[in-house]
Design goal:
The complex is a heterodimer of chains A (258) and B (292). With 258 residues, chain A is mainly α. Helices cover 74% and strands 0% of the residues of chain A. Chain A has two domains: 1-33, no CATH class; 44-257, MetI-like fold (Orthogonal Bundle). Chain A is globular. Classes of the chains: A mainly alpha (258), B mainly alpha (292). Chains A and B meet through helix 1, helix 3, helix 4, helix 5 and helix 6 of A and helix 1, helix 4, helix 5, helix 6 and helix 7 of B.
């Protein structure tokens, strides 16, 4: 408990300390103050970054899970040559070093006008999370009682109808798990956000926090950063704790059960 | 082949096509493009002067001290963090496997580091180790400026990495532990094998492929380390990693030719590490994974 919570408590404490107490080297604040929260909300940078982060991560998640769902269904249910290659390829992509493509993407995005835009970040996030989505979803899809699907097809439904009507509702928990994991990945990314954005138009929270500059050039706005960190950490942490069972299953499904 | 099988096949490809297209477009194409760019002298600050120079970029990188130091730093961080994580993660996994009482609570807390943005975690520890605002020095009675010296900076970076990713390791290993059949362990215990014998003789060999997957994932992940180093030192005090070097060459200095060559070299390193780990364990990774 202590292990996991120390930095969280610490950053919370930093964000609540009064500016005058910053240098007191104490773990807990002497007196509480919300001044830094008011400061970041009044600041133009942070709300913009928060909105970018939420929007970009949500759209990337939606796309990644949709594409992953189609592919995972085909891999688990349909017999066609090359499906093993798709799984192996997805796995290989999961180990791909993102820094290796940051440069070419930077150059391409500038030419295509995608630099510093939402789609410019959504595309790499969607792609880098696809392997995760495909693995988690195919692990879940294998557990589904497929006889129902067959029954629907005997009753005259096309494979596509069977997919939408029968499988999607059954697979919802798996889809939900995949969505959380994908969202956290996109929410967490710093490298692409730092390299492919330059202004508040598309800069996400991790990049905004890392490049945060206070009123004074020589002083790192430690406490404003701490307050911003708390704002972006607490909701995700709450979601993760509520759905912990599913997340653990999802995180380990691809690696061990697969 | 009858019509329904043919249509099944077509549907299979159709359903996979968008995912495969996206993967090819955003990973395969850029890495090939990087390979192509790496053969040019191409600096975005002087876009007119794009000259084909063959492998000259590679020659200048491989003969520069900067690359080898960055590679050395990356390996220090990778080996340092993965080794500790493996031990700590295994101990945690064993603990969670044994106790039934606090299992839920332990698992919940383990997920907290996972839920925190890496940049935030890196900053939290940076502020904690800071001599002015931090509490670590006060706690230990020291007066060290951790991030201004090379080895203490490595310590902070590796510490942050370990804090952030040990839970993932522990959960992976726990999943592997539950696959070890308890009756075999019971039989060994009846035959008089001690706890350590059972651990090294039965549990670990049976967990071979889980261990390999965990090691593979974490090593490659650690090798790509960027966020923590960037936030904590920006690569100062000679702590820069290969990802930092690639980023600086490409994005900060806009040298696409040289930067692309760095990118290709990083890609090859990752490939090499993956092959070494897979061969080292000798486990048939793909065969195992595809059997449901």
């Amino acid at each position: 408990m202590l292990y996991a919570l120390t930095p969280v408590a610490w950053i919370l404490s930093l964000s609540l300390k009064r500016a005058a107490d910053l240098g007191d080297r104490r773990f807990l604040p002497r007196s509480l103050s919300l001044e830094h929260y008011r400061a970041i909300i009044a600041d133009a940078q942070f709300p913009a970054a928060l909105w970018n982060s939420i929007g970009i991560a949500a759209i990337a998640t939606l796309l990644s899970v949709t594409l992953g769902m189609l592919a995972a269904y085909a891999i688990v249910r349909l017999d066609f040559p090359g499906r093993r290659w798709i799984l192996a390829g997805a796995l290989a992509t999961a180990m791909f070093p993102p820094v290796a493509i940051v440069g070419p993407l930077f150059n391409l995005w500038r030419t295509l006008g995608l630099f510093d835009t939402w789609p410019g970040l959504i595309l790499p996030y969607m792609t880098f999370t696809l392997p995760l989505a495909i693995w988690v979803l195919s692990a879940y899809f294998r557990e589904i009682p497929w006889e129902l699907d067959k029954a629907a097809r005997i009753d005259g439904a096309t494979p596509f109808q069977a997919f939408i009507r029968i499988i999607v509702p059954l697979a919802a928990p798996g889809v939900f798990t995949a969505a959380i994991l994908v969202f956290i990945f996109a929410w967490n990314d710093f490298l692409f956000a730092a390299a492919l954005t330059s202004t508040d138009r598309a800069r996400t929270v991790p990049a905004a926090i890392a490049f945060f500059t206070g009123s004074s050039r020589f002083e790192l706005p430690t406490q404003a950063i701490a307050a911003a960190s708390v704002v972006v950490t607490v909701p995700v942490m709450a979601v993760v704790l509520v759905f912990q069972r599913r997340i653990i299953a999802g995180l380990t499904a691809g690696a061990v059960k697969g | 082949m009858n019509a329904s099988r043919r249509s099944e096949r077509r549907l299979g490809w159709l359903l996979c096509a968008p995912a495969v297209a996206a993967l090819l477009l955003v990973t395969a194409y850029p890495i090939l493009y990087a390979g192509w760019l790496s053969l040019f002298r191409y600096d975005l600050r002087f876009p007119g002067e794009r000259v084909f120079i063959g492998l000259e970029n590679y020659a200048s990188i491989l003969s520069s001290e900067v690359w080898w130091r960055a590679l050395g730093n990356t390996l220090i961080i990778t080996v340092g963090s993965v080794a500790v994580e493996l031990l700590l993660g295994f101990a945690l996994a064993l603990f969670m496997h044994r106790t039934l009482v606090a299992r839920r609570a332990v698992r919940a807390t383990l997920l907290i580091p996972y839920a925190i943005i890496t940049v935030v975690a890196a900053l939290a520890w940076k502020f904690a180790f800071d001599p002015v605002t931090g509490f670590v020095n006060g706690l230990l009675g020291l007066d060290t400026a951790w991030l201004t010296q090379r080895w203490t900076a490595f310590f902070v970076i590796i510490f942050t990495e370990i804090w952030k990713t040990t839970p993932f390791m522990a959960l992976l290993l726990l999943a592997g532990l539950t696959l070890v059949p308890t009756d075999v362990l019971q039989a060994a215990r009846v035959d008089g094998a001690g706890a350590w014998r059972r651990l090294f003789g039965i549990t670990l060999p049976l967990m071979k492929s889980t261990l390999m997957v965990a090691l593979l994932f974490r090593s490659l992940d650690a090798f790509r380390i960027f966020d923590t180093v960037y936030v904590q030192t920006r690569g100062a005090q000679h702590t820069g990693t290969v990802s930092i070097l690639g980023y600086n060459t490409l994005i900060t200095r806009l040298n696409l030719g040289l930067g692309s060559a760095v990118a290709v070299l990083i890609f090859l390193c990752v490939l090499l590490i993956a092959l070494l780990i897979i061969r080292g364990f000798g486990a048939p990774l793909f065969a195992r994974r595809e059997q449901p």
